[in-house]
Design a protein that fits this description.
The protein folds into 2 domains: 31-327, 2-Layer Sandwich (BirA Bifunctional Protein, domain 2), CATH 3.30.930; 340-430, Anticodon-binding domain (Rossmann fold, 3-Layer(aba) Sandwich). 39% of the residues lie in helices and 21% in strands. The chain has helices at residues 9-16, 31-50, 65-68, 74-78, 98-107, 151-167, 182-192, 199-207, 215-223, 226-238, 243-254, 318-327, 350-362, 376-385, 396-401, 419-430; strands at 54-55, 61-63, 81-84, 90-93, 116-125, 137-146, 175-181, 260-262, 276-282, 290-296, 311-317, 340-344, 367-370, 390-394, 403-408, 414-418. The strands form 3 sheets. Strands 1-5-6-11-10-9-7-8 form an 8-stranded mixed β-sheet. A 5-stranded mixed β-sheet has the order 13-12-14-15-16, with helices on both faces. Strands 2-4-3 form a 3-stranded antiparallel β-sheet. The protein is elongated. The chain starts with 8 loop residues before the first helix and ends with a helix. The structure holds histidyl-adenosine monophosphate.
């Protein structure tokens, strides 16, 4: 019998080499990326809390039927990651938070004091064709208020979206808030004679209008003829605003929000919206894109068998938010976790260096000790590369004298101090 041939060197190396790429359409967050994520999240959280919203969370796994019912549009249903678990249950990775939010509120609707204001920053999954601004996993701030049917809640939700943009450095001229109302759409469908059964398909088509080259043809196919399609388009063009939206504009102006415009072409893709809908757009000519949006959905909670409870909210994605900040030069400069690196000049000083680090951490200084054993110059270059602002070199001299030279790597300035003065010096220089 022939011995099996040994795998060649090429086979072996091919077998050993696993790809370092992440799964298609999802991202790895290296420290510089995570730094920006955290910046975004901190601004989102801060604004939500300024408006009295409380944080909640849930699992990424939901029973698939949550999305098969009327909670989500087909858009999202077609794009779900769904699998059967070992117990034969159909499970979906959440494609959005609104059904989860509705489920959680409905589960305790008797106990939760209304109005309730909740927010979360959650990762959601959609099987989409990855492209600029669209990925298969993204993080989404969701802020929703339940229990207020009036215009104040619509205004509050939009004012929060506005406040987040402002808090990240955007001027009002950098973005605009385009608002419409599903009730306008219903009225237009009535007068154009659009069939009740086709309305949600038409709405989704209108939502994608700007992205479709053959919009007119598709619309005609859905509504049942070019004449009806034309009637609908001219209805949309004719309708400029409503008393409700003008009242909303006034309410927003009272809150200092003056970049709202009425745009009856805004429809949003989900079936559950019942009233005000909005989308925030970048105004820069090279990036006239929708950044995020939301709206009112007063009937969603009835799916869970309870009474209808009015609700309104929005979802703001991290991908488009980050692209916006980048396009407008608003991304923060990276700052590493460590304010200080302690370099070890000779191995005998190691325990002294670790002890100094512990003392400084107790005073709230973020410190990394360099254990590389490399030459001092290389250690300092590493600190520079990592953008650590300060270094201290610790050798026998420092150990014996108790005096340390703190170097500011940006200015080159050096200051000699005893251990008890270091934290004060760092904090005053870092501002
Ligand atoms: P949505 O418009 O589907 O709404 O998503 C909200 C935002 O999430 C989008 O405007 C965009 O910023 C981001 N986003 C959506 N899909 C992707 C993707 N594939 N890649 C990157 N970013 C994406 C909702 O999900 C509603 N549930 C929001 C809501 C909350 N309405 C009321 N309350």
């Amino acid at each position: 019998m022939q011995k099996p041939s040994k795998p060649s060197a090429i086979d072996q190396s091919q077998r050993a080499r696993l790809s370092t790429d992440p799964y298609k359409g999802v991202r790895d967050f290296y420290p510089e990326d995570q730094f920006i994520q955290r910046y975004l999240f901190e601004h989102m959280e801060r604004v939500c809390e300024l408006f009295g919203y409380e944080e909640y969370n849930a699992s990424v796994l939901e029973p698939a039927e949550l999305y098969r019912s009327k909670t989500s549009a087909e858009i999202v249903n077609d794009q779900t990651y769904t699998f059967t678990d070992r117990g034969d249950r159909e499970v979906t990775l959440r494609p959005e938070m609104t059904p989860t939010f509705a489920r959680m509120v409905a589960a305790r609707s008797r106990e939760i004091p209304l109005p309730a204001r909740w927010y979360t920053i959650a990762n959601v999954f959609r099987y989409e064709r990855p492209q600029k601004g669209r990925l298969r996993e993204h993080w989404q701030l969701n802020a929703d208020i339940v229990g207020v049917a009036g215009i104040e809640a619509d205004a509050e939700i939009i004012a929060m979206a506005h406040a987040i943009m402002r808090s990240m450095g955007a001027e009002e001229r950098d973005f605009e808030i385009r608002v419409s109302d599903r009730r306008i759409l219903d009225a237009m469908y009535d007068s154009a004679g659009i069939d009740i059964d086709t309305r949600s398909d038409v709405t989704r088509l209108l939502d994608r209008r700007a992205k479709l080259e053959d919009f007119d043809t598709q619309l005609a196919a859905v509504v049942g003829g070019t004449e009806k399609a034309q009637a609908l388009i001219s209805e949309i063009e004719r309708t400029t605003s409503t008393a409700y939206l003008e009242e909303l504009r006034v309410a927003l102006e009272h809150m200092g929000v003056t970049n709202m415009i009425v745009d009856t072409k805004i429809t949003r893709g989900f079936d559950y919206y019942t009233g005000m809908v909005f989308e925030v757009f970048d105004t820069s000519p090279e990036n006239r894109r929708s950044l995020f949006g939301g709206g009112r959905y007063d009937n969603l909670l009835t799916l869970f068998g309870g009474d209808s409870i009015p609700a309104v909210g929005f979802g703001m994605g991290d991908v488009t938010a980050r692209d916006f900040l980048e396009a407008h030069n608003l991304l923060p400069a990276y700052a590493p976790a460590s304010e200080l690196m302690i370099c070890i000049v000779e191995p005998e000083a190691t325990s002294h260096a670790t002890r100094l680090a512990q003392d400084l951490r107790r005073e709230d200084v973020t410190v990394a000790v360099n254990y590389s054993g490399k030459r001092l110059g290389d250690q300092i270059r590493q600190a520079e590369k990592m953008k650590v602002p300060f270094v201290i070199a610790v050798g026998a001299k420092e150990r014996d004298s108790g005096r340390y030279t703190i170097k500011n790597l940006a200015t080159g300035n050096e200051t000699v101090l005893t251990a008890d003065r270091i934290s004060e010096h760092l904090f005053s220089s870092l501002g």
